[in-house]
Amino acid sequence: MFVDVAKIHLKAGKGGDGRVSFRREKYVPDGGPNGGDGGRGGNIVFEVDPGMRTLMDFRYKLSYHADDGDDGGKKRSSGKSAKDLVLKVPPGTIVKDEKTGKIIVDLSDDIKKAIIAKAGKGGRGNLHFKSSVRQAPTFAEQGFYGEERDVILELKMLADVGLVGYPNVGKSTMLSSITKAKPKIANYHFTTLFPNLGVVEVIKGKSFVLADIPGLIDGAHEGVGLGHDFLRHVERTKLIIHVVDVSGIEGRDPEEDFESINNELFKYSEKLSDRTQIIAANKTDLVYDDGKYKDFIVKMEEKGYEVFPISAVSGKGIKELMLRVTELLETIEDVEIYSDDDMFVYEEDDKFNEIDYKVIDGVYVVDGIPIERLVYSTDFEDIDSVRRFQSMLTKKGVIDTLREMGIEEGDTVRIFDFEFEFYN
Q1: Is pLDDT above 90 for 85?
Q2: Alpha-carbon torsion 221, 192, 46, 11, what sign?
Q3: What's the CATH number where 230 sits?
Q4: Does the annotation place 208 within a ligand binding site?
Q5: Residue 170, marked binder
Q6: Recorded E.C. number(s) (predicted)?
Q7: Which among 155, 178, 197 is the end of a domain?
Protein backbone atom coordinates (compact mmCIF):
# COMPACT_ATOMS: atom_id res chain seq x y z
CA MET A 1 0.00 0.00 0.00
CA PHE A 2 1.26 3.49 -0.87
CA VAL A 3 0.66 6.06 1.87
CA ASP A 4 1.58 9.66 1.12
CA VAL A 5 -0.50 11.64 3.64
CA ALA A 6 -0.58 11.23 7.42
CA LYS A 7 -1.80 13.25 10.38
CA ILE A 8 0.02 12.79 13.67
CA HIS A 9 0.21 14.37 17.14
CA LEU A 10 3.56 15.52 18.52
CA LYS A 11 4.52 16.44 22.08
CA ALA A 12 8.06 17.50 22.88
CA GLY A 13 9.53 16.70 26.28
CA LYS A 14 9.10 18.90 29.35
CA GLY A 15 12.18 20.32 31.02
CA GLY A 16 13.18 18.90 34.38
CA ASP A 17 12.41 20.85 37.56
CA GLY A 18 15.07 22.83 39.37
CA ARG A 19 16.20 21.48 42.74
CA VAL A 20 15.96 23.05 46.19
CA SER A 21 19.07 22.03 48.08
CA PHE A 22 21.59 23.45 50.57
CA ARG A 23 25.16 22.66 51.40
CA ARG A 24 25.42 20.40 54.42
CA GLU A 25 29.15 20.19 54.94
CA LYS A 26 30.75 19.59 58.33
CA TYR A 27 32.88 22.73 58.38
CA VAL A 28 30.43 25.02 56.52
CA PRO A 29 27.85 25.92 59.19
CA ASP A 30 25.94 28.38 57.02
CA GLY A 31 26.06 26.55 53.71
CA GLY A 32 24.25 28.33 50.87
CA PRO A 33 21.91 26.99 48.20
CA ASN A 34 23.32 24.46 45.74
CA GLY A 35 20.27 23.11 43.95
CA GLY A 36 20.97 22.25 40.30
CA ASP A 37 18.99 23.05 37.16
CA GLY A 38 16.64 20.66 35.44
CA GLY A 39 17.66 19.07 32.14
CA ARG A 40 16.17 20.00 28.79
CA GLY A 41 13.38 17.82 27.43
CA GLY A 42 13.64 16.00 24.12
CA ASN A 43 12.91 17.75 20.83
CA ILE A 44 10.93 15.97 18.13
CA VAL A 45 13.07 15.93 15.01
CA PHE A 46 12.19 14.84 11.47
CA GLU A 47 15.04 13.44 9.40
CA VAL A 48 15.13 12.30 5.78
CA ASP A 49 15.78 8.60 5.18
CA PRO A 50 16.71 8.11 1.48
CA GLY A 51 15.59 4.49 1.70
CA MET A 52 11.99 5.31 2.60
CA ARG A 53 9.36 5.68 -0.11
CA THR A 54 6.08 6.01 1.80
CA LEU A 55 4.63 7.38 5.05
CA MET A 56 3.39 3.92 6.02
CA ASP A 57 5.17 4.08 9.39
CA PHE A 58 2.79 6.86 10.45
CA ARG A 59 -0.39 5.05 9.42
CA TYR A 60 -0.81 3.08 12.65
CA LYS A 61 1.03 5.12 15.27
CA LEU A 62 -0.56 8.54 15.43
CA SER A 63 0.98 10.10 18.55
CA TYR A 64 4.63 10.72 19.46
CA HIS A 65 5.94 12.00 22.81
CA ALA A 66 9.60 12.81 23.46
CA ASP A 67 11.08 12.10 26.90
CA ASP A 68 11.15 14.70 29.67
CA GLY A 69 14.39 16.06 31.11
CA ASP A 70 15.60 14.90 34.55
CA ASP A 71 15.18 17.09 37.60
CA GLY A 72 18.15 18.98 39.00
CA GLY A 73 20.25 17.42 41.74
CA LYS A 74 22.19 18.45 44.83
CA LYS A 75 25.64 20.05 44.79
CA ARG A 76 24.86 22.13 41.70
CA SER A 77 24.28 19.00 39.64
CA SER A 78 22.17 19.61 36.56
CA GLY A 79 19.59 17.08 35.52
CA LYS A 80 20.30 15.00 32.42
CA SER A 81 18.77 16.33 29.22
CA ALA A 82 16.52 13.92 27.32
CA LYS A 83 17.47 12.54 23.93
CA ASP A 84 15.68 13.96 20.92
CA LEU A 85 13.01 11.78 19.36
CA VAL A 86 14.05 11.41 15.71
CA LEU A 87 11.34 10.39 13.23
CA LYS A 88 12.46 9.19 9.80
CA VAL A 89 10.55 10.34 6.71
CA PRO A 90 11.06 9.83 2.96
CA PRO A 91 12.65 12.53 0.77
CA GLY A 92 10.09 15.07 -0.43
CA THR A 93 8.03 15.09 2.78
CA ILE A 94 6.33 18.38 3.58
CA VAL A 95 5.38 18.96 7.22
CA LYS A 96 2.36 21.22 7.75
CA ASP A 97 0.89 22.67 10.91
CA GLU A 98 -2.61 21.16 11.07
CA LYS A 99 -4.14 24.19 12.80
CA THR A 100 -3.00 26.82 10.28
CA GLY A 101 -2.35 24.69 7.21
CA LYS A 102 1.03 26.43 6.86
CA ILE A 103 4.23 24.61 5.87
CA ILE A 104 6.69 24.11 8.73
CA VAL A 105 9.41 22.53 6.61
CA ASP A 106 9.99 20.94 3.22
CA LEU A 107 12.35 18.00 3.66
CA SER A 108 13.67 17.78 0.14
CA ASP A 109 17.11 18.31 -1.37
CA ASP A 110 18.25 21.28 0.70
CA ILE A 111 16.91 20.40 4.15
CA LYS A 112 17.53 16.93 5.54
CA LYS A 113 16.72 17.43 9.21
CA ALA A 114 14.52 19.81 11.22
CA ILE A 115 13.11 20.28 14.72
CA ILE A 116 9.31 20.22 14.45
CA ALA A 117 8.34 20.39 18.15
CA LYS A 118 10.76 22.21 20.45
CA ALA A 119 11.54 20.83 23.89
CA GLY A 120 10.98 22.72 27.12
CA LYS A 121 14.05 24.00 28.91
CA GLY A 122 14.87 22.93 32.43
CA GLY A 123 13.88 24.96 35.47
CA ARG A 124 16.51 26.79 37.49
CA GLY A 125 17.61 25.43 40.84
CA ASN A 126 17.48 27.55 44.02
CA LEU A 127 21.15 28.40 43.50
CA HIS A 128 20.04 31.02 40.97
CA PHE A 129 17.70 32.82 43.37
CA LYS A 130 20.25 33.75 46.01
CA SER A 131 20.66 37.50 46.51
CA SER A 132 21.95 39.97 49.09
CA VAL A 133 18.54 40.02 50.78
CA ARG A 134 17.68 36.35 50.16
CA GLN A 135 20.55 34.19 51.35
CA ALA A 136 18.69 30.89 51.53
CA PRO A 137 15.97 30.68 48.83
CA THR A 138 13.65 27.74 49.50
CA PHE A 139 12.16 27.61 46.03
CA ALA A 140 13.25 26.55 42.59
CA GLU A 141 11.77 26.81 39.14
CA GLN A 142 9.54 24.23 37.48
CA GLY A 143 10.69 23.01 34.07
CA PHE A 144 9.07 24.46 30.96
CA TYR A 145 6.63 22.44 28.87
CA GLY A 146 7.61 21.34 25.38
CA GLU A 147 5.64 22.26 22.27
CA GLU A 148 2.61 20.19 21.41
CA ARG A 149 1.04 20.25 17.97
CA ASP A 150 -0.79 18.26 15.32
CA VAL A 151 0.97 18.07 11.97
CA ILE A 152 0.09 16.80 8.52
CA LEU A 153 2.74 14.97 6.53
CA GLU A 154 2.48 15.09 2.75
CA LEU A 155 4.82 13.23 0.45
CA LYS A 156 5.52 14.96 -2.84
CA MET A 157 7.87 12.80 -4.86
CA LEU A 158 11.15 14.33 -5.95
CA ALA A 159 11.01 13.73 -9.69
CA ASP A 160 12.32 15.95 -12.46
CA VAL A 161 9.82 14.70 -15.03
CA GLY A 162 6.28 13.43 -14.61
CA LEU A 163 4.37 11.14 -16.95
CA VAL A 164 0.68 12.04 -17.05
CA GLY A 165 -2.24 10.75 -19.07
CA TYR A 166 -5.35 8.60 -18.89
CA PRO A 167 -5.12 5.05 -17.52
CA ASN A 168 -3.91 2.44 -20.00
CA VAL A 169 -2.18 4.89 -22.36
CA GLY A 170 1.19 3.18 -21.82
CA LYS A 171 2.94 5.25 -19.15
CA SER A 172 4.02 2.28 -17.03
CA THR A 173 5.25 0.40 -20.10
CA MET A 174 7.23 3.47 -21.13
CA LEU A 175 8.77 3.86 -17.65
CA SER A 176 9.81 0.21 -17.50
CA SER A 177 11.34 0.28 -20.99
CA ILE A 178 13.74 3.16 -20.24
CA THR A 179 14.50 2.65 -16.53
CA LYS A 180 14.97 -0.19 -14.07
CA ALA A 181 11.60 0.49 -12.46
CA LYS A 182 9.26 -2.52 -12.32
CA PRO A 183 5.68 -1.17 -12.28
CA LYS A 184 2.78 -3.57 -12.59
CA ILE A 185 1.59 -3.49 -16.19
CA ALA A 186 -1.65 -4.85 -17.57
CA ASN A 187 -4.29 -3.99 -20.14
CA TYR A 188 -6.90 -2.59 -17.78
CA HIS A 189 -8.66 0.72 -17.31
CA PHE A 190 -8.08 1.03 -13.61
CA THR A 191 -5.32 3.36 -12.58
CA THR A 192 -2.06 2.25 -10.97
CA LEU A 193 -2.42 2.47 -7.18
CA PHE A 194 0.83 4.31 -6.50
CA PRO A 195 3.44 6.37 -8.40
CA ASN A 196 6.60 4.73 -9.68
CA LEU A 197 10.04 6.28 -10.02
CA GLY A 198 12.90 5.49 -12.36
CA VAL A 199 16.23 7.05 -13.36
CA VAL A 200 16.86 7.87 -17.02
CA GLU A 201 20.34 8.40 -18.51
CA VAL A 202 20.56 8.69 -22.30
CA ILE A 203 23.51 11.10 -22.17
CA LYS A 204 26.32 9.88 -19.90
CA GLY A 205 26.50 11.93 -16.71
CA LYS A 206 23.15 13.66 -17.33
CA SER A 207 20.53 11.56 -15.61
CA PHE A 208 17.11 12.59 -14.32
CA VAL A 209 14.30 11.06 -12.28
CA LEU A 210 11.14 10.13 -14.14
CA ALA A 211 7.85 9.48 -12.31
CA ASP A 212 4.84 7.64 -13.64
CA ILE A 213 2.02 9.68 -12.12
CA PRO A 214 -0.91 7.24 -11.97
CA GLY A 215 -3.72 7.66 -14.47
CA LEU A 216 -5.90 10.67 -13.85
CA ILE A 217 -9.64 10.81 -14.44
CA ASP A 218 -12.27 13.53 -14.80
CA GLY A 219 -12.83 15.30 -11.50
CA ALA A 220 -9.38 14.41 -10.14
CA HIS A 221 -8.77 18.01 -9.02
CA GLU A 222 -11.79 17.66 -6.72
CA GLY A 223 -10.49 14.41 -5.27
CA VAL A 224 -12.50 12.07 -7.53
CA GLY A 225 -10.83 8.68 -7.66
CA LEU A 226 -7.40 9.14 -6.11
CA GLY A 227 -7.23 12.71 -7.45
CA HIS A 228 -5.36 14.74 -4.86
CA ASP A 229 -3.32 11.73 -3.80
CA PHE A 230 -1.61 11.77 -7.20
CA LEU A 231 -1.85 15.37 -8.39
CA ARG A 232 0.38 16.56 -5.55
CA HIS A 233 3.24 14.59 -7.09
CA VAL A 234 3.00 16.52 -10.36
CA GLU A 235 3.68 19.78 -8.51
CA ARG A 236 7.38 19.06 -7.97
CA THR A 237 8.18 18.05 -11.54
CA LYS A 238 10.04 20.52 -13.74
CA LEU A 239 8.65 19.07 -16.96
CA ILE A 240 5.59 17.05 -17.91
CA ILE A 241 5.46 14.36 -20.56
CA HIS A 242 1.83 14.01 -21.56
CA VAL A 243 1.31 10.47 -22.86
CA VAL A 244 -1.60 10.14 -25.31
CA ASP A 245 -2.95 6.99 -26.99
CA VAL A 246 -3.14 7.89 -30.70
CA SER A 247 -3.89 4.37 -31.95
CA GLY A 248 -7.66 4.83 -31.98
CA ILE A 249 -8.18 1.13 -31.28
CA GLU A 250 -10.38 1.90 -28.28
CA GLY A 251 -12.38 4.64 -29.94
CA ARG A 252 -10.85 7.41 -27.83
CA ASP A 253 -10.17 10.89 -29.18
CA PRO A 254 -6.55 11.82 -28.36
CA GLU A 255 -7.24 15.56 -28.50
CA GLU A 256 -10.17 15.27 -26.08
CA ASP A 257 -8.07 13.13 -23.72
CA PHE A 258 -5.24 15.65 -23.85
CA GLU A 259 -7.48 18.62 -23.08
CA SER A 260 -9.35 16.75 -20.34
CA ILE A 261 -6.19 15.80 -18.43
CA ASN A 262 -4.75 19.31 -18.75
CA ASN A 263 -8.02 20.71 -17.45
CA GLU A 264 -7.64 18.58 -14.30
CA LEU A 265 -4.02 19.65 -13.85
CA PHE A 266 -4.72 23.36 -14.22
CA LYS A 267 -7.78 23.31 -11.97
CA TYR A 268 -5.72 21.63 -9.27
CA SER A 269 -2.93 24.22 -9.48
CA GLU A 270 -2.67 27.25 -11.76
CA LYS A 271 1.11 26.95 -11.48
CA LEU A 272 0.94 23.76 -13.56
CA SER A 273 -0.35 25.73 -16.56
CA ASP A 274 3.12 27.30 -16.86
CA ARG A 275 4.96 24.00 -16.58
CA THR A 276 6.90 22.90 -19.65
CA GLN A 277 4.95 20.10 -21.36
CA ILE A 278 5.73 17.88 -24.33
CA ILE A 279 3.53 15.21 -25.87
CA ALA A 280 4.38 11.54 -26.31
CA ALA A 281 2.03 10.22 -29.00
CA ASN A 282 2.07 6.56 -27.97
CA LYS A 283 0.95 3.31 -29.62
CA THR A 284 1.87 4.53 -33.12
CA ASP A 285 2.49 0.87 -34.03
CA LEU A 286 -1.26 0.26 -33.65
CA VAL A 287 -2.61 3.29 -35.55
CA TYR A 288 -5.48 2.33 -37.86
CA ASP A 289 -6.63 5.83 -38.88
CA ASP A 290 -3.49 7.49 -40.19
CA GLY A 291 -5.29 10.70 -41.13
CA LYS A 292 -6.74 11.30 -37.66
CA TYR A 293 -3.39 10.57 -36.04
CA LYS A 294 -1.54 13.07 -38.27
CA ASP A 295 -4.29 15.65 -37.75
CA PHE A 296 -3.77 15.40 -33.98
CA ILE A 297 -0.04 16.06 -34.33
CA VAL A 298 -0.65 19.11 -36.53
CA LYS A 299 -3.16 20.59 -34.06
CA MET A 300 -0.88 20.08 -31.07
CA GLU A 301 2.10 21.62 -32.86
CA GLU A 302 -0.05 24.60 -33.85
CA LYS A 303 -0.74 25.10 -30.13
CA GLY A 304 2.99 25.23 -29.47
CA TYR A 305 3.57 21.71 -28.15
CA GLU A 306 6.41 19.46 -29.24
CA VAL A 307 5.05 16.05 -30.27
CA PHE A 308 7.11 12.85 -30.32
CA PRO A 309 5.55 9.78 -32.01
CA ILE A 310 6.57 6.73 -29.98
CA SER A 311 5.82 3.10 -29.27
CA ALA A 312 6.47 2.24 -25.62
CA VAL A 313 6.28 -1.48 -26.47
CA SER A 314 8.82 -1.52 -29.31
CA GLY A 315 10.88 1.42 -28.06
CA LYS A 316 10.44 3.40 -31.28
CA GLY A 317 11.02 7.12 -30.75
CA ILE A 318 11.78 6.74 -27.03
CA LYS A 319 15.47 7.68 -27.29
CA GLU A 320 14.70 10.82 -29.29
CA LEU A 321 12.09 11.84 -26.71
CA MET A 322 14.46 11.28 -23.78
CA LEU A 323 17.26 13.21 -25.50
CA ARG A 324 14.96 16.19 -25.91
CA VAL A 325 13.85 15.94 -22.29
CA THR A 326 17.49 15.90 -21.15
CA GLU A 327 18.18 19.05 -23.19
CA LEU A 328 15.12 20.88 -21.86
CA LEU A 329 15.89 20.08 -18.22
CA GLU A 330 19.17 21.97 -18.49
CA THR A 331 17.25 25.13 -19.39
CA ILE A 332 14.43 24.87 -16.82
CA GLU A 333 14.84 26.39 -13.37
CA ASP A 334 13.87 24.52 -10.23
CA VAL A 335 10.17 24.58 -9.45
CA GLU A 336 8.81 26.63 -6.55
CA ILE A 337 5.72 24.85 -5.30
CA TYR A 338 4.84 27.34 -2.57
CA SER A 339 5.43 30.97 -1.63
CA ASP A 340 6.54 32.73 1.57
CA ASP A 341 2.86 33.20 2.45
CA ASP A 342 2.50 29.42 2.66
CA MET A 343 5.21 29.11 5.31
CA PHE A 344 4.53 28.61 9.00
CA VAL A 345 5.82 31.38 11.29
CA TYR A 346 6.98 30.15 14.68
CA GLU A 347 5.28 31.94 17.54
CA GLU A 348 5.22 30.89 21.16
CA ASP A 349 1.99 29.10 21.91
CA ASP A 350 -0.45 31.42 23.69
CA LYS A 351 -1.20 28.73 26.25
CA PHE A 352 2.32 29.14 27.67
CA ASN A 353 1.58 32.78 28.54
CA GLU A 354 -2.16 32.93 29.09
CA ILE A 355 -3.69 33.16 32.56
CA ASP A 356 -7.35 32.15 32.82
CA TYR A 357 -9.84 33.72 35.21
CA LYS A 358 -13.37 32.69 36.08
CA VAL A 359 -15.82 32.83 39.00
CA ILE A 360 -17.39 29.54 40.14
CA ASP A 361 -19.95 29.63 42.95
CA GLY A 362 -18.48 32.86 44.26
CA VAL A 363 -14.90 31.58 44.18
CA TYR A 364 -12.38 33.38 41.97
CA VAL A 365 -10.46 30.70 40.07
CA VAL A 366 -7.08 31.45 38.50
CA ASP A 367 -5.20 28.93 36.36
CA GLY A 368 -2.99 28.57 33.31
CA ILE A 369 0.52 27.29 32.66
CA PRO A 370 2.32 30.41 34.01
CA ILE A 371 0.40 30.07 37.28
CA GLU A 372 0.97 26.31 37.41
CA ARG A 373 4.71 26.81 37.10
CA LEU A 374 4.63 29.43 39.86
CA VAL A 375 2.59 27.25 42.22
CA TYR A 376 4.79 24.20 41.81
CA SER A 377 7.89 26.34 42.30
CA THR A 378 6.67 27.57 45.69
CA ASP A 379 7.11 26.11 49.16
CA PHE A 380 3.97 27.31 50.95
CA GLU A 381 5.42 26.35 54.33
CA ASP A 382 8.27 28.81 53.91
CA ILE A 383 7.54 32.52 54.45
CA ASP A 384 10.26 33.64 52.03
CA SER A 385 8.87 31.43 49.27
CA VAL A 386 5.32 32.64 49.92
CA ARG A 387 6.44 36.27 49.71
CA ARG A 388 7.98 35.57 46.29
CA PHE A 389 4.73 33.90 45.25
CA GLN A 390 2.72 36.99 46.19
CA SER A 391 5.22 39.27 44.48
CA MET A 392 5.04 37.25 41.25
CA LEU A 393 1.22 37.35 41.27
CA THR A 394 1.43 41.13 41.40
CA LYS A 395 4.03 41.30 38.60
CA LYS A 396 1.95 39.05 36.36
CA GLY A 397 -1.07 41.34 36.83
CA VAL A 398 -3.16 38.73 38.64
CA ILE A 399 -4.03 41.00 41.59
CA ASP A 400 -5.06 43.90 39.34
CA THR A 401 -7.19 41.61 37.17
CA LEU A 402 -9.01 40.18 40.20
CA ARG A 403 -9.76 43.72 41.38
CA GLU A 404 -11.15 44.59 37.95
CA MET A 405 -13.38 41.52 38.21
CA GLY A 406 -14.86 42.95 41.43
CA ILE A 407 -13.15 40.83 44.07
CA GLU A 408 -13.57 42.11 47.62
CA GLU A 409 -11.59 41.60 50.78
CA GLY A 410 -12.29 38.22 52.33
CA ASP A 411 -13.37 36.59 49.04
CA THR A 412 -11.86 33.20 48.21
CA VAL A 413 -9.27 32.74 45.46
CA ARG A 414 -8.52 29.23 44.19
CA ILE A 415 -5.24 28.64 42.41
CA PHE A 416 -5.04 24.99 41.41
CA ASP A 417 -5.36 22.99 44.66
CA PHE A 418 -4.78 25.96 46.95
CA GLU A 419 -7.39 28.38 48.30
CA PHE A 420 -6.62 31.80 49.77
CA GLU A 421 -8.56 34.68 51.26
CA PHE A 422 -8.07 37.91 49.35
CA TYR A 423 -6.71 40.90 51.32
CA ASN A 424 -5.75 44.28 49.96
Answers
A1: yes
A2: positive
A3: 3.40.50.300
A4: no
A5: yes
A6: 3.6.5.-
A7: 155
